[in-house]
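Here's what a typical entry looks like (ParB/RepB/Spo0J family partition protein):
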Amino acid sequence: MSEKNEEKTPASVPKRKIGGLGRGLNALIEGSYEKKGERLVPHPVNSVGFISVNHIEANPYQPRTHFDQQALQELAESIRIQGIIQPVTVRQLGTNSYQLISGERRLQASKLAGLDTIPAYIRKADDQQMLEMALIENIQRENLNAIEIALSYQRLVSECSLKQEELGDRVGKNRSTVTNYLRLLKLPPDIQIGLRDAEISMGHARALINIEDAEQQLMLYRRIVAEDLSVRRVEQIVRGGGAASAPATTPGQKAPENAPQPVPVAELRRTERHLSDRFGSRVQVKPNPQGNGEIRIAFDSVEDMQRILHILQPS
């Protein structure tokens, strides 16, 4: 091995192989150190290196305020076994002082797992960029509901002075998609809460937006929940003039005797809440009119997926 190659491996980097880290990430970390006297330290920006968890402070712009403690413990156990697969992202404030941009759950779980250092991508960012990156990372999480996404979009528009075209470029969406999310915030609070709690879908909400009268919106929203109306049926009602009180079937019409009975909406929501508490992640139960369906469990990182798979394994 040449002298040049020997200088690239800092003594502060753990010698043991970190499970799940992968040769690709190790290579990045090994190549991101420079010599300072007799020590090798990470480059201050645009590099990946190991940083002490005690040198990283929380992101003051973090949109998430609640972290499920059981889910954190399970992620910590996964990290003990597999190691850190995806580095956190930080900005440097000073010597041995960093501020987290993204990866709050990974950082907290790493502390619980007893890690002294954590792989981190170091980049340059001012306060506005910090807010932008924190919000955009939040938006890109698969388990956000439509209202949470809409509120994050609104913050980017108002607090970061972004136009909708610029916002679309930032989050990889076209302007019409951004506009549709922002329009959700014009719905009555009760409907926004229903969308947040998955009592109705984004498709239902988009149909309701086309009704100008707020009271008519609420009437149709309550009927959607009570009768478990499909998006297509709601669109038909809205196109027909928003007859929110009209029955879902014509008078005297009966469902076939062998037709599957729809699962009550309240029961679906209870099931979703129970499973969400069990897995520490957002869970959606999607039944079909034929009586079958699917259950979706969201995860926000490879470590989170491994934590969920660990829960699913029979004991």
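DSSP finds 14 helices and nine strands in the chain.

More examples are in the samples folder.
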